[in-house]
Amino acid sequence: MEIIFIAILFFTFLAGEAKSLKFSTLSLVPHSLLIVVAVFTIGYIYEISSLYLIGVVDLVVRAILMPLFLLKCLKNRVETEEKPSISHPLSIALSIVVLSVGYHFVKIFTVYQLPQVLSGFSCGLTLVIYGLYLFISKKDMIKMIISFFIIENGIHFLIISMIPHMPKLIEISLTFNFVVAVLFFVYLTIRLNEVFFREEIKKFKEINSQGSEQ
């Protein structure tokens, strides 16, 4: 499980720090697929059958639909990330610190304070922390949506980690989480397309006005 969680954090880093928005979006695919693998693995190890259904929904929503939505949005704009508020080298360094230190610190904390939670807790909390960092440091709208996606995946993992405490309540919470996540990201995608469409119209008018002046 440790290798799976580290791999999730690695692809999370690529999604957050790659300058190419297309590469960032494509990095969400292995990121989400590994989450699916983790969910299935946790379900198998702890014999929690409900996690198999959750893993299937994760596969469809997180690993397929959301990357496709974002790739569709990228067709209408430049694929290079808008300059972030923090310089790229510094952002990479801070990301490595947040992911590595955050994950190991939280893991040590949960071992001593919350030994009964599943192993995904530390990974989930690290994703939430890193997603919040990305949201604060990035100005590009696609990157901000990616940061929301990472935060939501982190919350998803946190909920799964609490399954031994309240199985039925957690299953209801996860179902609600799926519905809210899908509706939220569909709304963001629609709004994103509207913004890009307006930007294209504005650029087209500016080009036409410059051509008529010449």
Description of the molecule:
It contains 7 helices and no strands. With 214 residues, the protein is mainly alpha-helical. It has one domain. α5 (120-137) runs antiparallel to α6. The longest helix is centred in the last third of the chain and has 47 residues, at 167-213. The termini are far apart.
Topology:
Blueprint (H helix, E strand, L loop, with lengths): L1 H16 L3 H25 L4 H25 L13 H26 L6 H18 L3 H21 L5 H47 L1
Helix pairs in contact: 1-2, 1-4, 1-5, 2-3, 2-6, 3-7, 4-5, 5-6, 6-7
Membrane topology: Multi-pass membrane protein
Organism: Thermodesulfovibrio aggregans
InterPro entries: HyfE-like
Give me some keywords for this one.
214 residues; mainly alpha; cell membrane; HyfE-like; membrane; 7 helices; transmembrane helix; single chain
Mean pLDDT: 78
Number of strands: 0
Contiguous runs where pLDDT drops below 50 for at least 5 residues: none
Which class best fits the helix and strand makeup? Answer: mainly alpha
Cα end-to-end separation: 64 Å
- The number of helical elements comes to 7
Task: Output the helix-strand order.
Answer: HHHHHHH
What's the number of structural domains?
1
Share of helix, binned: over 70%
Radius of gyration: 19 Å
Report on the biggest sheet: none
- The fraction of residues in strands falls at under 5%
Principal-axes geometry comes out as globular
